[in-house]
Write a structure and sequence with these properties.
By secondary structure, this protein is α/β, with parallel strands linked by helices. It has helices spanning about 20-30, 60-75, 90-95, 95-105, 150-155, 170-185, 195-200, 205-215, 245, 255-275, and strands at about 35-40, 55, 80-90, 110-115, 160-165, 185-195, 225, 230. It is built from ten helices and eight strands. The protein starts with 20 loop residues before the first helix and ends in a 6-residue tail after the last helix.
């Protein structure tokens, strides 16, 4: 099935040049269509106007706000509307994590998207728990000393029916996973890499290229977990060196070659652990 523009996302917006957020929102809505109610803006990348209902309060309450909409629709017996919740990485991993966890444990019928630009970008580029190891932010000027939280795997162990990782550079993989999530009842979690030129200190024209390199270097593995069945979506014959992804981003410019090789080894180890899970039920 071809993916066609449905004009739900309207011209205009408040994002920075090169932000991948509007592209991500367009892909999501081109799959889901008009019968959607959205709660939460998805961080600073979701500033474009749209023709569907969108409600948003403070980012600390994204999941619980969406839950209220889910319960209201259930009380009315309305089953033809998809409820989506959107949070940035700070909201999902920090300020709203307890509410996200509660919605997952209740198996509330929504698709929850984390749009991960790997820091609190719209408040000044402070670190979140999803900021990568050794990345510069304004609150980690020497580089973050801890690894990035593995939020998709944490959500999987809430025993929800569907979890997936995606990126706009592999857009048909993203389309397929959103289509699948739409047809599954219960709580679905989709984690999206959202390059941010402002916080990553990268060339605004290179956002999609960076999201592609994240996958090709093993920094951002693509996989899905359906009822505990783990499947890797993309297996390159050979990964590109992580330096090709890190060096275009000035948030990593303080790294020396030893630090880059350390990150290379960390992601090699992570990939080998994922390969051992591939094709198995991990519940």
């Amino acid at each position: 099935m071809a993916l066609k523009e449905n004009n739900i996302i309207l011209p205009g917006g408040t994002t920075c040049p090169g932000c991948s957020g509007p592209t991500i929102h367009r892909i999501i809505y081109n799959v889901l269509g008009q019968n959607v109610i959205q709660f939460g803006g998805g961080g600073c990348g979701g500033g474009s106007p749209r023709t569907v209902p969108l409600y948003s309060l403070h980012h600390s309450g994204v999941a619980s706000g969406a839950t209220g909409i889910v319960k209201a629709l259930e009380a009315q017996g309305r089953t033809n509307i998809t409820v989506i919740a959107m949070a940035g990485d700070g909201g999902a991993s920090n300020t709203s994590f307890g509410k996200l966890s509660a919605a997952a444990l209740r198996n509330d019928n929504m698709i929850f998207f984390t749009l991960d630009n790997e820091a609190y970008m719209n408040t000044g580029v402070q670190k979140s728990d999803l900021t990568p190891y050794n990345a510069w932010t304004r609150t980690t000027p020497m580089g973050k000393s801890t690894k990035k939280m593995d939020l998709p795997m944490i959500m999987n162990y809430h025993y929800v029916p569907y979890v997936a990782t995606v990126t706009p550079a592999f857009h048909m993989d993203m389309v397929r996973k959103i289509r699948k999530a739409k047809e599954i009842k219960g709580f679905k979690y989709i984690h999206v890499l959202e390059p941010c030129p402002t916080g990553w200190r990268s060339d605004p024209s290179k956002s999609i290229e960076l999201s592609r390199l994240a996958v090709q270097t093993g920094i951002w593995p693509l996989y899905e977990i359906e009822n505990g069945d783990f499947k890797i979506s993309y297996k390159p014959r050979e990964f590109k060196p992580v330096a090709e992804y890190l060096k275009p981003q000035r948030r990593f410019r303080h790294l020396d070659e030893d630090s880059i090789q350390e990150i290379q080894q960390l992601h090699k180890d992570d990939w080998e652990r994922l390969l051992r899970k591939d094709g198995t039920n991990i519940w």
